[in-house]
Amino acid sequence: MGRSLEGQHALVTGGGSGIGLASARALAADGARVTLVGRNEEKLAAAAADFPADALVDVHAADVADESQVEAAVRAADGRAALTIAVANAGTGDIAPLVATDSERWRSVLATNLDGCMYTFKHAARVIGRAGGGAMCAISSIAGLRTHRFMHAYGVSKAGIDMLVRGAADELGVAGIRVNSVCPGLVDTDIAQGLFGTEDVLEDYLACMPLGRTGVVEDIAQAVRFLCGPESSWMTGVNLPVDGGHHLRRGPNYDTFSKAMFGEDITAGRFDSLE
């Protein structure tokens, strides 16, 4: 019996590690050719070398915050084989009280997360449309659905991704392109190690999850695989929470982080120490 993604070609940004790499592996395991995109070519090459021998894996170094680099990555991937799937996963985060968030940090998060997703969708849609249609999927976050105090730039970027997904789905359906997002909760990745290593923050997360456990990258990868595969062929414009039910409750308490970085005065609402 053939694999259901045979003949498909997926581009995955942030594909060198974490959710991006796990998603690429899930797509490749079902027969898709994959192109891993990320800023570090050596990291991408090491990730690609660890795929099964029969997998078709290419790499392309690019910074998703730079539109010209995203366009070049899409063109290079499509030049190897017609692109039919795009996963906009590359992302970064930041934590700071609103009154202590400077413009450089704000723009850096939005440039990678939201601008990078838009550039990926924009250029991938052009070639996927010419191929007769396909699927695009973004990695959003529970932070786009529920407030996360002190994570303003990150939360705004992820909420923006979810709206971008809905708008793109409405616009691109006529071209046979489905567009969805996955909204992970707390997942065990390198970028989240600070959360896993702070006991009271981790306990607060778990208290907000009906299923009572944090996620692993494969939980998200399987949702990506589903939204990019034939089983979801009548689904578009969906922002799918994969978070142990966290979206049913409230955002986490990050007071510990903010106190350590910015002092107790800010978390208590006192701003007299700020210049």
Features:
7-stranded parallel β-sheet, Rossmann fold, 7 strands, alpha/beta, 10 helices, 44% helix, globular, 275 residues, 14% strand
List the helices and strands and how they pair.
Layout: E1 9-13, H1 18-29, E2 33-38, H2 41-49, E3 57-61, H3 67-80, E4 85-88, H4 103-130, E5 134-139, H5 152-172, E6 177-184, H6 193-196, H7 199-207, H8 217-228, E7 239-242, H9 255-262, H10 264-267
Parallel strand pairs: 1-2, 1-4, 2-3, 4-5, 5-6, 6-7
Helix pairs in contact: 1-8, 3-4, 4-5
Commentary on this structure:
α1 links the parallel β1 and β2. Helices cover 44% and strands 14% of the residues. The protein is built from ten helices and seven strands. By secondary structure, the protein is of the alpha/beta class. A seven-stranded parallel β-sheet has the order 3-2-1-4-5-6-7, sandwiched between helices. The protein is globular. The protein has helices spanning 18-29, 41-49, 67-80, 103-130, 152-172, 193-196, 199-207, 217-228, 255-262, 264-267, and strands spanning 9-13, 33-38, 57-61, 85-88, 134-139, 177-184, 239-242.
